[in-house]
Write a sequence for this structure.
């Protein structure tokens, strides 16, 4: 280990010690390469943040260990008409401050999620109104028939109306504008764990909710979440016993962890697809030396970029085999995935020819925005893409940065070329079509994460039809047609599905989910 890494590790251990973390049968210490950017469950539709906050806040409908639907704050639901779902709410549930949970909190929360600053608008774009029948019954009316609404709202977490009003947190934290409020640093949910301490980018502490309405299978009374950005430091902390769980394990360290006496790597497929997007709306790119026009509006340029990327080389050298190259914006395990879909071939000469035909035989410069602490080997992937594109005379000005500054930038569309990852929370292709590929609406909602504003009216029409179609065969045929349109347009540049790899002490028992969520209630330290 280098001197610098030893110093970093020593500093980490000192920080853990000074915060009073003492290893015990009840404390589980988790490290991730990045932090949840806010405790506000509506401020960022990102898997890590939703995973962390899901231990404090809950939706009406949750997930079991096999990702099937499970009652959460709703005990039962049924579709009473094509556009109306009725939910029976769980009784005798309290928020962490003792306030009773009622229908008013549900109505308030859905209004908050659809409001200004919310990053959950796309998820709830189908919701027209939420009506109170009584204190423990509500109806959700959708703008059109929505046969999978319970799947759609599994990450729509419910907040206390009273608490938000008292703490001036009626509207969500807006990371794009740098707006914070009390909900970013404090929390008051109904979940199995309470937020005890929040030090952004340093340490977040959770304690078991003794008044929780449900069963907590694990034995953790305290969970300490610590971001450790440096891969080597994170691995060393696990192997030395200073942390109990870490995510992600660098692919090159999986064998090393598995051969250690006290830790193991738990691996499995992930539902997330990593892809690249391009600004296809502006008449001139914000960050390019091409003036007066936008090269990404030309399909030939988009296809040249696609065919210049050596995806098998990325799998081999960057991902060490732990990725599944993808032709689509969704992967295996998502309803509507097309196993026979093929990527365009890697062909540098064909890419050069396309660039010349488009009027760029000498290439051009463009900035590329990437996180370096969000996805597996994200920074290295972007460096490799930049090197690949240099072969067709495209100079990439790579801007790799922590997700704390990256996400606010790209989510306000302050980008020309970017990386993003997406896990459809419904495990259905409509989620990706509606969030990533449909023409963006001016005020958010559908297309909220179509950050480059790719647009094809025929795909939009199909996406809306897919939402309401109940015949599975017809629905899947429409999904295929929509994906075929998107692929023919080169709407985005799909890269791969990354593999899950968690590092876990051998005496820790937990459940690894394919959506990469980490429920504390299923974690235990065994003797």
């Amino acid at each position: 280990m280098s001197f610098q890494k030893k110093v970093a590790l020593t500093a980490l251990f000192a920080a853990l010690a000074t915060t009073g973390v003492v290893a015990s049968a009840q404390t589980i210490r988790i490290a991730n390469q990045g932090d949840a950017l806010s405790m506000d469950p509506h401020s960022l539709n990102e898997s890590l943040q939703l995973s962390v906050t899901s231990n404090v806040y809950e939706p009406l409908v949750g997930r079991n260990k096999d990702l099937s639907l499970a009652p959460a704050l709703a005990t039962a639901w049924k579709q009473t008409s094509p556009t109306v779902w009725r939910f029976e709410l769980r009784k005798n549930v309290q928020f962490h401050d003792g306030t009773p949970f009622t229908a008013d909190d549900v109505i308030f929360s859905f209004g908050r999620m659809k409001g200004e600053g919310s990053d959950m608008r796309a998820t709830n774009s189908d919701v027209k109104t939420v009506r109170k029948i009584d204190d423990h019954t509500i109806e959700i009316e959708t703008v059109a028939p929505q046969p999978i609404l319970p799947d759609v709202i599994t990450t729509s977490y419910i907040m206390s109306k009273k608490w938000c009003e008292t703490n001036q947190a009626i509207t969500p934290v807006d990371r794009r504008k740098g707006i914070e409020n009390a909900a970013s640093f404090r929390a008051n949910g109904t979940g199995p764990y309470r937020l005890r301490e929040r030090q952004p980018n340093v340490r977040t502490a959770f304690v078991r909710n003794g008044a929780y309405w449900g069963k907590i299978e694990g034995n953790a009374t305290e969970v300490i979440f610590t971001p450790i950005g440096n891969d080597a430091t994170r691995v060393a902390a696990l192997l030395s016993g200073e942390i109990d769980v870490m995510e992600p394990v660098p692919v090159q360290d999986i064998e090393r962890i598995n051969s250690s006496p006290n830790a193991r790597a738990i691996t499995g497929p992930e539902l997330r697809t990593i892809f690249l997007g391009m600004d296809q709306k502006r008449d001139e790119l914000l960050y390019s030396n091409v003036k007066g026009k936008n090269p990404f509006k030309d399909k030939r340029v988009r296809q040249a970029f696609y065919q210049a990327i050596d995806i098998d080389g990325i799998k081999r050298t960057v991902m060490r085999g732990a990725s599944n190259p993808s032709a689509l914006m969704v992967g295996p395990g998502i309803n509507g995935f097309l196993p026979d879909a093929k990527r365009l071939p890697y062909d540098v000469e064909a890419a050069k020819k396309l660039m010349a035909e488009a009027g760029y035989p000498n290439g051009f410069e463009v900035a590329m925005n990437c996180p370096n602490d969000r996805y597996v080997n994200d920074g290295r992937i972007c460096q490799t893409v930049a090197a690949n594109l240099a072969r067709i005379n495209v100079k990439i000005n790579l801007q790799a940065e922590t997700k704390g500054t990256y996400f606010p930038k790209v989510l306000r569309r302050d980008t020309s070329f970017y990386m993003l990852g997406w896990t459809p929370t419904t495990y259905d292709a409509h989620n990706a079509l509606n969030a990533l590929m449909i023409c963006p609406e001016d005020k958010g909602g559908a297309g909220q994460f179509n950050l480059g504003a790719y647009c094809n009216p025929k795909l939009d029409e199909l996406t809306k039809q897919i939402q309401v179609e109940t015949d599975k065969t017809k629905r899947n045929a429409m999904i295929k047609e929509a994906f075929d349109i998107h692929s023919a347009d080169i709407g985005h540049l799909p890269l791969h599905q990354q593999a899950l790899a968690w590092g876990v002490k051998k005496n820790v028992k937990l459940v690894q989910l394919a959506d990469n969520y980490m429920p504390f209630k299923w974690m235990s330290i065994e003797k």
About this structure: The longest helix spans residues 472-489. The chain has 16 helices and 19 strands. The CA atoms of residues 90 and 171 lie 25 Å apart. Confidence is low (pLDDT under 50) at residues 1-11, 13-25.
